[in-house]
TrEMBL record:
Protein species of origin: Clostridium yunnanense
Protein name as catalogued: Undecaprenyl-diphosphatase
Transmembrane segments: 7-26, 46-67, 87-105, 111-133, 185-208, 228-250, 262-281
Gene: uppP
Keywords: Antibiotic resistance, Cell membrane, Cell shape, Cell wall biogenesis/degradation, Hydrolase, Membrane, Peptidoglycan synthesis, Transmembrane, Transmembrane helix
Entries under Pfam families matching the protein: BacA
Membrane topology according to the record: Multi-pass membrane protein
Length: 282
């Protein structure tokens, strides 16, 4: 069977979008829905599965970048050291809300929330929340001491559960898992870099679990050579792009506020509404 190079090229474009948007607060799902519409890469069971696989590629970037810390905490856990035990317990506690709501709402979300209308709402509402919560956070930092020197194992269980609950907002396409968890971090009293780093670690179990639910439903007997190549290249491209983006995003957060992402989200949401009203996209 001949390879469909145009299909493979489109798959690479979607993988680039995923790698860029997965860990910055703009919603990777929302952007993949929109770009998929614009390049006609949509509406098949394979594409739904493909988007899950490239998300795993982006998650692998977190594992690689933070491998020294992950490996140190694994060894610490099996040595029954307080530091390692607390680190993994905080990750587990922060993941629990997503597990509960994800299992309960997975089919409902797939059926009702993957549309341009819901993405536009997610973009705009998420952008407004980012501005409001960050402004409140910065006012508090003038009165209270938010330490940039804390580590994940020093996060309290109460803070972890709050961040985990906020992470559930990301089940609404367009809201962004990164934005949701960082906002939860601010409300919980975490500094911006720590909230972002915690969001990266929470992404590992949350997205692997969500991916597992989706991947087991796919009929692999129908897959073609073109689709196999698209999967492999998409995974690799998403991984490489995410590697670059994560490093740059953390450096950005140490110096700048997130308002620029909020403004972009609101603008993108308004443009999306305009495109729907003018029937450019349906």
């Amino acid at each position: 069977m001949a390879l469909d190079f145009l299909f493979i090229f489109k798959a690479i474009i979607i993988a680039i979008v995923e790698g860029i948007t997965e860990f910055i607060p703009v919603s990777s799902t929302g952007h993949m829905i929109i770009v998929g519409e614009l390049i006609n890469f949509k509406d098949s069971e394979f594409i739904k599965m493909f988007e899950i696989v490239i998300q795993l590629g982006a998650i692998l970037a977190v594992v690689v970048l933070y491998w020294n810390k992950i490996w140190t905490m694994i060894k610490s856990f099996f040595k029954f050291e307080q530091k390692g035990i607390k680190f993994w317990l905080v990750i587990i506690v922060g993941t629990i809300p997503a597990v509960i709501f994800g299992l309960a709402l997975d089919d409902i979300i797939d059926k009702y929330l993957f549309s341009y209308k819901t993405v536009a709402v997610g973009f705009i509402v998420g952008g407004i929340l980012l501005i409001l919560i960050e402004n409140n956070f910065r006012k508090k930092t003038r009165r209270l001491k938010y330490s940039n020197n804390l580590n994940i194992e020093e996060i309290t269980y109460g803070q972890a559960i709050k961040v985990g609950l906020f992470q559930c907002l990301a089940m609404w396409p367009g809201m962004s898992r990164s934005a949701s968890t960082i906002m939860g971090g601010w409300i919980s009293g975490l500094s911006t870099p720590l909230a972002a780093e915690f969001s990266f670690f929470l992404a590992i179990p949350a997205m692997i679990g969500a991916s597992g639910l989706k991947l087991r439903k796919f009929d692999y007997s129908t897959i073609t050579n073109t689709e196999v190549i698209s999967l492999v290249l998409g995974f690799i491209v998403a991984f490489i792009v995410a590697l670059v983006v994560i490093d740059g995003f953390i450096a950005f957060l140490k110096k700048k506020p997130m308002r620029v992402f909020a403004i972009y989200r609101i603008f993108a949401g308004v443009v999306l509404v305009a495109l729907m009203l003018t029937k450019v996209i349906k």
